[in-house]
Amino acid sequence: MNCIFISPHFPPQYHHFCQQLKFAGANALGIGDAPYDELKPAVRDSLTEYYRVNRMTDYEELLRACGYFTHKYGKIDRIDSLNEYWLSTEARLRDDFNVYGLKTSDLPAVRHKSEMKKRFQEAGIPVAPGRVVESLADARKLVKQIGYPVVAKPDAGVGAHHTYRLDNDKDLVRFFERRPDVDCIMEGFVCGQIHSFDGLADKNGKPVFLTSHVFSQGIMETVNEGQHLSYYSVRRIPAVLHRQGMKCLEVFDVRERFFHIEFFKTDKDEFTALEINMRPPGGFTTEMFNYACDIDIYRVWAELLVRGNNQLDFERRYFCGYASRKENIRYLHSHEEIIERYGADICQVNQIPVVFSGALGELGYIFRTEKTSRLQEIIRFIHQTGTRQEA
């Protein structure tokens, strides 16, 4: 089996996917813009071969890379990046090389928030009121219907980029003065806590792995207000969330892919759909999958692709949490104090790449506990701010 992996060196843990492809017996063929000699040894070792391009945004270069691999290894069986940024590029390459997976024609429903909203409604799942707005006048017309506050963002945006809460007409005017030159959607602001429905589906759309995460606040607030962030996996998925998540897998026809579906929990048993992403959750959440359940999700994914193995016996043994730190915030406890006090619970400490630091902080702690009380205690200790009083 020949599998092309786009950008195997970034995010930094994604070379594990390539490594497991090799272990499963596939050719793991990497395409990236980093010089081969600058790749970390673990990345180089994870690949059967690496093709360097000058610019990842030059589609002709990517075509030549895929053509080279086809000539040398035979028909390409899979093309993936597992990264939202390259979703359109990999779909286009699948079109051109007739490779199984999401094609360009499939993308509107999973890239455009206005189209997602239609699918959610088709599944009978509540959504925030809203639509694409064409002008300031059109936006004012919508606001007249749904009221402030509203959230404005690119219809096909990634993450919280250009996403703003607007509380009045002054905010609305300012947004249109600086809005990106793309279609934008405006929705009623939903007050609630973000819960995600995450996992990996097999070729028939059946979940191989499932979990859920609870977030301290949205990425929009984290980025725009310079806040630190925490989130954690649960040991039991709420029944309503599980039911709505499974409906989403069906209506979006999720097959042989990771998924990350975000909901607002607005009441005890009520969830409002926010968006779906056809990729693993961001940051180091794939590592959290592993720590929470004592599995290797990289191997699970690779064996699903290469061998069609869709059997995984797993248990959510731990709550697995992530807590970030921001350089602009003064914290009461030092890194050394955190390790001294909670070292037995901490699984990883990561320096966060600059491109992710707005959302995930400059430093991120991953930890696991059997009880939420211990998990929340760790989060509070990491995030406690202030200046220590000298004795």
Automatic annotation (TrEMBL):
<keyword id="KW-0067">ATP-binding</keyword>
<protein>
    <submittedName>
        <fullName>Carboxylate--amine ligase</fullName>
    </submittedName>
</protein>
<dbReference type="GO" id="GO:0016874">
    <property type="term" value="F:ligase activity"/>
</dbReference>
<dbReference type="Pfam" id="PF02786">
    <property type="entry name" value="CPSase_L_D2"/>
</dbReference>
<dbReference type="InterPro" id="IPR013815">
    <property type="entry name" value="ATP_grasp_subdomain_1"/>
</dbReference>
<dbReference type="InterPro" id="IPR052032">
    <property type="entry name" value="ATP-dep_AA_Ligase"/>
</dbReference>
<feature type="domain" description="ATP-grasp">
    <location>
        <begin position="117"/>
        <end position="306"/>
    </location>
</feature>
<dbReference type="GO" id="GO:0046872">
    <property type="term" value="F:metal ion binding"/>
</dbReference>
<keyword id="KW-0547">Nucleotide-binding</keyword>
<dbReference type="GO" id="GO:0005524">
    <property type="term" value="F:ATP binding"/>
</dbReference>
<dbReference type="InterPro" id="IPR011761">
    <property type="entry name" value="ATP-grasp"/>
</dbReference>
<dbReference type="InterPro" id="IPR005479">
    <property type="entry name" value="CPAse_ATP-bd"/>
</dbReference>
<keyword id="KW-0436">Ligase</keyword>
